[in-house]
Amino acid sequence: IRQQPGCLIQLLYFVFIGCWLGALSVSLAYLLFLTVLGIPLGVMIINRIPYLLALRETEPIISYIGAQTKQRNFFLRTIWFLLVGFWLTAFWLVIAYLLACTIIAMPIGFWMFDRAPALLTLHRS
Q: Is the pTM of this model over 0.85?
């Protein structure tokens, strides 16, 4: 089992590195979401946001590899992505980042990052 860094290390990392690295990561992931082929890489980045932001190890919520859950109709997911998911996810990621930058609301921000790929494409896990 991997041990987490101490609270002081995580706090210093968050203040000096995590805030700007988290913002860059969210921006890069969202740009990858613009290209349909880049969505899986964007999802991988979003799954790593808690670590990049605060050295917090988490299990990825959404994985496109080996998914066994029956998914919604591809046409419906495409329409959702183009008309709603793309814009709603941008707003969602900004709010999640702002919450994650506050110590008190950080868990809510991380929860929102975990749900972003499903919001973008209606992916079921």
A: no
